[in-house]
Amino acid sequence: MGLFITFEGGEGCGKSTQSRLLLKKLEQQNVPVVLTHEPGGTALGNELRKTLKRKRDSSISPQAELFLLAASRAQLVAEVIRPALEEGKVVLCDRFTHSTMVYQGYGRGLDFTAIKMVNNMATKNLNPDLIILLDISPEQGLARKQSLKDRFELEGLSFHRRVREGYLKMAAAEPDRWLVIDASLPKRKIAEIIWDRVSQLLPNLSLRTEFPLP
Question: Residue 167 belongs to what domain range?
């Protein structure tokens, strides 16, 4: 079985940047690795992503949102994540089940037990080995966005504050499985912190000390 690493955090935290940097670093070390994202990552998931993120006149109920995300996740796990893990690869995923816990649970107010049940059904109880949380205040994160383009980014500050609170609570409950990083640090420093932790999970690597940036 391979290694499953997820990236979590609020809007503008830098997940996509850091997941790509880790991908590049692992490739340089000749580690078989796959990078994917949620919602999306498959043909079905990409269609659902458009539906979930598109600004619209009519709203999507929190329950419908939960099930749309779960459908995208179920397809991604079946088509991409689980096969790669079974091949012994490292799988990096930009968002996973914990995003649903905070956005639909803490943010939308859905029942946490119900969310966990839906998540477990979609993933067949697959959990990450390491969750990297890039923590940043909503004010800072949203300010990084050149424009607010999707439904989630356009939510009010109170929503994004609840999301951040949820992330920090979950990370505090499982400190061994979460790596919490101040996302306001320089990009290179964040990448070095991530690599220091990930390299410990890959002890057979001949490690390079310098972390290159594009």
Answer: 3-200
Which CATH number belongs to the domain containing residue 143 in this structure? 3.40.50.300
Q: Are 124 and 117 a contacting pair, CB within 8 Å?
A: no
Q: How many other β-carbons are positioned within 10 Å of the β-carbon of residue 187?
A: 13
**Cβ distance 115 to 23 under 8 Å?**
no
Q: Give ∠ CA 43-28-12 in degrees, rounded to 5.
A: 55
pLDDT tens-digit series, residues 104-147 = 999 999 999 999 999 999 999 999 999 999 999 999 999 888 76
103 close to 80: Cβ distance less than 8 angstroms: no
What pTM did the predictor assign? 0.91
Number of domains, the chain: 1
Measured CA to CA in angstroms, residue 43 lies from 47, 50, 188 at distances of 7, 11, 33
